[in-house]
Write a structure and sequence with these properties.
The chain has 179 residues and is an alpha/beta fold. Helix content is 35%, strand content 15%. The model has no long low-confidence stretch (mean pLDDT 91).
């Protein structure tokens, strides 16, 4: 049996605890995220999750750390903690995201994973003009999306013809480090 693993949540909204606690700053900066993840790594935490939002779901006037650029930088700033970045498939074409993820995989030397979230915060999609699909359609879209990403992560040439995506003779190099 494997040992339990412990992780932290990067405060992408500026704080993760109670909204009005005087000791919990509303600081969604990369600098704060970097300091927290490095401290967590020193304390023996093995993983971190970086949630994805393009606008702060608590209050759109508050700052919001961008997930994928932060994940790449945090991968470089650490040496043992696994970086898990959330992704909303409606925000990224799977080929673009797969290539970005391969880059972070290389930066982290294989300490990278994704957390697929099929969207829930409707204003985040509607404000930039992204079609917010119905619940069931978002999950069908996400299913096809992750099949494309997995295929592209295989290191093989991909031909995929689905309802949402058509991929023709696409292969990414270098191949992934993480399995």
């Amino acid at each position: 049996m494997s040992e339990p693993r412990y992780g932290i949540w990067i405060p992408v909204y500026g704080n993760c605890g109670v909204m009005n606690h005087p000791l919990e700053p509303r600081d969604a900066s990369y600098s704060r995220a970097k300091n927290l993840i490095q401290f967590a790594q020193k304390c023996g935490f093995t993983t971190t999750l970086i949630a994805q939002h393009i606008i702060n779901p608590r209050n759109q006037e508050l700052d919001q750390l961008e997930t994928w650029t932060a994940a790449a930088a945090l991968a470089e700033a650490t040496n043992s903690i696994e970086i898990i970045a959330a992704v909303k498939p409606l925000l990224f074409h799977p080929a673009v995201l797969a290539k970005m993820a391969l880059g972070i995989d290389a930066i982290s030397h294989g300490r990278f994973a994704i957390n697929l979230v099929s969207a829930w915060f409707k204003p985040e999609m509607e404000k930039p003009g992204i079609n917010f699909l119905t619940h069931d359609e978002r999950y069908r879209y996400s299913d096809e999306w992750i099949r494309v990403v997995r295929a592209l992560w295989s290191g093989e040439k991909v031909n995929f013809y689905g309802e949402y995506f058509q991929i023709n003779d696409l292969k990414f190099n270098p191949p992934p480090i993480a399995k």
